[in-house]
């Protein structure tokens, strides 16, 4: 059955994926926690300590652990590991042309942009990058943001609004969820990849405008959105279709590319994954891009992307769009096929279910020199804890041999998270 929030109603927090907030066992409403009516004001120090205790008691404590690496292999806590956890899908973060472009930009422009783009933080390299991104994505124009997260916030807050119904897939990324909140739009959360549910939400809306937003490739599941069908539904209902292409590596089919070229489609791309650099961008019509430059607060009120990051991304686009890029995608596809031939992306989830079992499996692989993270609530739904394998063209055959052997030793095989 399609899961559609009735028009005019806010989505249930239980339908949403990871909000980026600690899981306290209570629904996340997105509103400040004021406590019971009439309660005395909470002491901020005590409140902070209580929230930390909640995380510890739920056995979901997290910390940043340094991984000293320049490529897939590195050192963590004195142990040598091969990472199958990163998003450097084409291995471009260490490509000589990409690194060289960043170094040259540092010499010419220094370390930072020093101001927002609309003041004096706009460098010639930003223009070059935006022209290259627009050409690469067959769009009229592009605008670069400091991160992909900021790009999603900017697009949704600018194109949304109280007069715009947003229809959002239940497994969308946290940046999309936060963008919907920032837009102050009424939101319908629909069942994953359910085109009929999207159609119904658009048909039953009361608002004059609408926007559909999806991930092109879902970061925890590795599956693809039905973009061709969604573009048709959005066009029929006079709605924008916003597509977050953060994890897109392999080429879209020709029919999908044609659909994505339509003027009602807005494409958000990330420069920090397949391109191995940093930043995000929006590719769309010139009018949409101009509107973002003039109205998107995450673009206007922040320092511009550093020149070195912009130069690295520009060089990476050049590689990705070249025959070498085709070779790297073919190499990556061959490695994915060794782990899960059915996966349409470099992301391969291994659903385990129980959190403790997922953590134990990750520890067992680490003992074999393989860094494969356990993903658990609140990032994924309860009962779907998993190992998340990501592959890169930079992985060697020997590295993937070790991964395949390690998964076989634990009797782990890819299976659908649905």
Structural summary, described in words:
The chain has 418 residues and is of the alpha/beta class. The protein has helices at 44-57, 96-109, 124-136, 148-159, 174-183, 195-203, 227-236, 254-260, 286-295, 297-300, 307-320, 323-339, 355-367, 397-409, and strands spanning 68-69, 73-76, 79-83, 141-145, 164-169, 187-190, 209-215, 240-244, 265-270, 280-284, 347-353, 370-371, 374-375, 385-390. A hairpin with a 2-residue loop joins strand 2 and strand 3 (79-83). It starts with 43 loop residues before the first helix and ends in a 9-residue tail after the last helix.
Label the structural class.
alpha/beta
Instruction: Give the helix tally.
Output: 14
- Give the integer mean of the pLDDT values: 91
Radius of gyration: 22 Å
Order the strands across the largest sheet as they lie in space: 4-10-9-8-7-5-6
**What helical percentage do the residues reach?**
25-40%
Reported for the largest beta sheet, the result is: 7 strands, mixed
- The tally of strands reads 14
Low-confidence stretches: 1-32
Backbone shape: globular
H/E element sequence: HEEEHHEHEHEHEHEHEEHHHHEHEEEH
Please report which band the strand proportion falls in: under 5%, 5-15%, 15-25%, 25-35%, 35-45% or over 45%: 15-25%
User: What is the terminal separation in angstroms?
Assistant: 14 Å
């Amino acid at each position: 059955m399609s899961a559609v929030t009735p028009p005019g109603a806010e989505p249930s927090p239980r339908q949403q994926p990871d909000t980026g907030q600690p899981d306290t066992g209570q629904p996340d409403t997105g509103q400040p926690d004021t406590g019971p009516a009439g309660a005395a004001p909470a002491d901020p120090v005590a409140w902070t300590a209580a929230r930390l205790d909640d995380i510890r008691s739920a056995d979901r404590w997290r910390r940043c652990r340094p991984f000293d690496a320049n490529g897939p292999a590195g050192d963590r806590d004195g142990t040598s590991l091969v990472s199958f956890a990163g998003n450097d899908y084409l291995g471009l973060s260490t490509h000589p042309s990409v690194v060289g472009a960043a170094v040259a930009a540092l010499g010419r422009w220094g370390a930072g942009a020093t101001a927002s783009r609309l003041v004096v933080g706009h460098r010639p390299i930003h223009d070059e990058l935006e022209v290259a991104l627009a050409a690469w994505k067959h769009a009229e124009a592009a605008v670069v943001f400091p991160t992909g997260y900021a790009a999603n916030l900017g697009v949704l807050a600018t194109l949304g609004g109280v007069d715009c119904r947003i229809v959002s897939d239940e497994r969308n990324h946290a940046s999309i969820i936060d963008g919907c909140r920032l837009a102050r739009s009424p939101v319908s959360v629909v069942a994953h990849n359910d085109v009929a549910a999207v159609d119904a939400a658009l048909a039953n809306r009361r608002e004059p405008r609408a926007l559909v937003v999806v991930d092109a490739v879902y970061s925890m599941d590795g599956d693809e959105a039905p973009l061709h069908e969604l573009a048709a539904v959005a066009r029929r209902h006079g709605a924008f279709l916003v597509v977050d292409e953060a994890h897109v590596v392999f080429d879209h089919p020709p029919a999908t590319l044609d659909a994505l070229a339509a003027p009602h489609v807005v494409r958000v791309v990330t420069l920090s994954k397949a391109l191995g650099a940093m930043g995000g961008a929006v590719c769309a019509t010139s009018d949409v891009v101009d509107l973002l430059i003039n109205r998107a607060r995450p673009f206007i009120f922040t320092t511009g992307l550093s020149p070195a990051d912009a130069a690295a991304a520009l060089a990476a686009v050049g590689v990705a769009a070249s025959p070498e890029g085709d070779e790297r995608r073919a190499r990556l596809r061959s490695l994915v096929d060794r782990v899960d031939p059915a996966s349409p992306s470099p992301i391969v989830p291994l659903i385990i279910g129980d959190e403790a079992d997922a953590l134990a499996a990750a520890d067992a692989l680490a003992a074999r020199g393989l860094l494969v993270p356990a993903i658990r609530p609140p990032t994924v739904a309860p009962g779907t804890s998993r190992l998340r394998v990501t592959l890169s063209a930079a992985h060697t055959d020997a590295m993937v041999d070790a991964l395949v052997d390690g998964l076989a030793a634990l009797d782990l095989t890819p299976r659908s998270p649905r």
